Amino acid sequence: MIFLAHEVKYVTQTIEKIMSEWSKNGKKNFTVRVPKSHRVKEFEMLLKQMLIHYQVPVRAMVQEVTVEIKCRCGYTGEARVSDPESVIRILCPNCNKNNGRVIVGKEIEIL
Ligand SMILES: [Zn+2]
């Protein structure tokens, strides 16, 4: 349960967006696209728990998306996402450094 804390901030932000869509447009089905750089399983579990907790009558499906980078070494493509516990999470598979700019999968999207 300790590491559930990592995604709390993102889950809270996501729920705020979902609730505002729901109260404005009555939208009930959401797809939340979460980049692999997040702890996706943890995110999903927390999101479901918090929706129940806040009694928001919506369905939210979590979809994992790949992270792509454009690296200074010239590499462009899918990044290597390291162990969830390490500080640097996104690495270039070519030069093994964190010199890349994220071009796909930068942040959580709600559809
Ligand atoms: Zn590189």
Number of beta strands: 8
Strand content: 25-35%
The main pleated sheet reads as: 3 strands, mixed
How do the strands line up in the largest sheet? Answer: 2-1-8
| Structural class estimated from helices and strands | alpha+beta
Low-confidence stretches: none
Helix residue percentage: 25-40%
Number of helices: 2
Tell me the CATH architecture.
2-Layer Sandwich
The radius of gyration over CA amounts to 16 Å
What's the overall average pLDDT, rounded? 90
Separation, N- and C-terminal Cα atoms:
28 Å
CATH topology label: hypothetical protein PF0899 fold
CATH class category label: Alpha Beta
What is the molecular shape?
elongated
Number of domains: 1
Ligand species: zinc ion
N-to-C series of helices and strands: HEHEEEEEEE
What would you say this structure looks like, in words?
- The protein is an alpha+beta fold and 111 residues long.
- The chain has one domain: hypothetical protein PF0899 fold.
- The chain has two helices and eight strands; from the N terminus they run H-E-H-E-E-E-E-E-E-E.
- The chain has helices at residues 8-25, 40-53, and strands spanning 29-35, 59-65, 68-70, 76-78, 80-81, 90-91, 101-104, 109-110.
- It has a three-stranded mixed β-sheet with strand order 2-1-8, covered by helices on one side. Strands 4-3-7 form a three-stranded antiparallel β-sheet, with no helix packed on it. It has a two-stranded antiparallel sheet with strand order 5-6.
- Strand 5 (80-81) and strand 6 (90-91) form a beta hairpin.
- Helix 1 packs across helix 2 (40-53).
- The longest helix is centred in the N-terminal third of the chain and has 18 residues, at 8-25.
- It is elongated.
- The two termini are 28 Å apart.
- The structure holds zinc ion.
- Zinc ion is lined by residues 71, 73, 75, 92, 94-95, 97, 99.
